[in-house]
Every structure is written in structure tokens, then in C-alpha cells.
Amino acid sequence: MAMTSYAPPTDPWTEIVYEDEHLLAVNKPPGLLSVPGKEPQHYDSMWSRLTETYPEIQAVHRLDMSTSGLMVFAKNKLAESALKKQFQYRLTHKVYYARVWGHVTEDEGDVDLPLICDWPNRPRQKVCYEHGKPSKTIYQVVKREAQTTVVRLFPVTGRSHQLRVHLQAIDHPIVGDEFYAHEAAQQFSSRLQLHAAELSFYHPESCRLQQIFVPCEFYTEATAAITDYFQPERELPDYKTLPRP
């Protein structure tokens, strides 16, 4: 499915939330690509905007265009290699917030369903028990509302559209989701209410555990939650000796 129109927000042009000599963290708005698309009209992206000031900046992970929130970029080769390896070997931990349709019954749980690209309808993904890649998402209910539920999400794996498909699969699609929500849930919000709020990783230079949090626009009560679920004392594997991604 081709992108029919692309009009990303421009104010603010970039929102930098953390910077040092090795890396840069930004709060990506919904509607902006993480990296340039294939067509010239889709060049505007979080990466291309940052290269105006930081020509050597490199993306080490991505968010869906419709998803808002935290992205980390590498400012040099050392940081790029270290961060890419951490994402590949699941040494990072991420926390998202989402508003989903309906009332999620259990206070917490997990969705463990294999995913694969739905090629005739790409970029959509789908559950496929025969050929899908293992995919797991942990969720916690934060607040039950009149028609919706706010959930905190901990993706164990990082498949494309994983959170969106997993929530649809348990009959609680994310509101405003143009790909996976039914009409009522889609019309409930003018944007996909999915936000990457928090990321933990090991700093490329010091190897110390670092956590960054950015507030959530559609749920202002969101708080940092990684240390509530994951143990911050976890040991750092010698990722510098691991193969390149």
C-alpha cells in the first residue's frame, strides 16, 4: 500500500531531549517518518532533519510514522555499532503507552503470537503460525476509561507493527490506527495513540545503564516504568565482541 499523502508536522522541527558527544535522543512527533522513504517527496524525516545540524548522525532503530516518542541516534561509528548491537541482541528495553478500544479485562498479561508481513497488503503485518517470526508483548493496564483502556506495553521482541497487531489480535486495537482498528476505534482519535515513552540501553562509551523518558501527549499521567518491571542491575554482556548486525 503506497503512502497516499505525506504532510508531516513542522513545529517543532526537532525536539531534542538528550545529547552528549556520542548520541542524541529526540521526541518524534506522530506523522513524521523516522528515516526517508523511497520517493523524493518522502525524504523529510527525523533523520533528515537532524542531519541539517549533525551531518554524521545515524539511525539505530525506527518508529512507525504514526507512532510518537523517543528515538536515539548515534553521532559516531562507535555509538552506531554499540547501539545497533544492543537492539539486535535485545539488550535494550522499551516502554510504550497506548490507548486501546474497549476494556482490557486482565490487569496484566502477555501476547505471544508469531508475525509476518501481509505481502498483498503491505506494510500491514499479520499473525501466521506457520511462517511467522516469534513475537511477544507484555502489557499492564494503567487506566480504564468509558470506552477505552490505557495500557503500558513492554515489547520483548521488535517486529514491525508488533504492538499494533498484537493488540488487534486480542480485540483491543489501538485507537486511531488506520491499518488495524475497526471504524469506531479508528474514528475515536485523529492520530494513532501509541507513544514510545522510555528506553534503556548501555551508554556506548561508559557501558553504564542509561534510561531516557519522554512524556506522552495523549496521556499526560504517563511515568517512567522500566525499573518497575525490569531489573536495572542486569549484567551487561560483552556486546563489543558480538558480530556486527
Automatic annotation (TrEMBL):
<dbReference type="GO" id="GO:0000455">
    <property type="term" value="P:enzyme-directed rRNA pseudouridine synthesis"/>
</dbReference>
<dbReference type="GO" id="GO:0008033">
    <property type="term" value="P:tRNA processing"/>
</dbReference>
<dbReference type="InterPro" id="IPR006225">
    <property type="entry name" value="PsdUridine_synth_RluC/D"/>
</dbReference>
<dbReference type="GO" id="GO:0003723">
    <property type="term" value="F:RNA binding"/>
</dbReference>
<keyword id="KW-0413">Isomerase</keyword>
<feature type="active site">
    <location>
        <position position="64"/>
    </location>
</feature>
<comment type="similarity">
    <text>Belongs to the pseudouridine synthase RluA family.</text>
</comment>
<dbReference type="InterPro" id="IPR020103">
    <property type="entry name" value="PsdUridine_synth_cat_dom_sf"/>
</dbReference>
<dbReference type="InterPro" id="IPR006224">
    <property type="entry name" value="PsdUridine_synth_RluA-like_CS"/>
</dbReference>
<comment type="function">
    <text>Dual specificity enzyme that catalyzes the synthesis of pseudouridine from uracil-746 in 23S ribosomal RNA and from uracil-32 in the anticodon stem and loop of transfer RNAs.</text>
</comment>
<protein>
    <recommendedName>
        <fullName>Pseudouridine synthase</fullName>
        <ecNumber>5.4.99.-</ecNumber>
    </recommendedName>
</protein>
<dbReference type="GO" id="GO:0160151">
    <property type="term" value="F:tRNA pseudouridine(32) synthase activity"/>
</dbReference>
<dbReference type="InterPro" id="IPR006145">
    <property type="entry name" value="PsdUridine_synth_RsuA/RluA"/>
</dbReference>
<dbReference type="GO" id="GO:0160142">
    <property type="term" value="F:23S rRNA pseudouridine(746) synthase activity"/>
</dbReference>
<comment type="function">
    <text>Responsible for synthesis of pseudouridine from uracil.</text>
</comment>
<keyword id="KW-0819">tRNA processing</keyword>
<keyword id="KW-0698">rRNA processing</keyword>
<feature type="domain" description="Pseudouridine synthase RsuA/RluA-like">
    <location>
        <begin position="22"/>
        <end position="169"/>
    </location>
</feature>
<dbReference type="InterPro" id="IPR050188">
    <property type="entry name" value="RluA_PseudoU_synthase"/>
</dbReference>
<dbReference type="Pfam" id="PF00849">
    <property type="entry name" value="PseudoU_synth_2"/>
</dbReference>
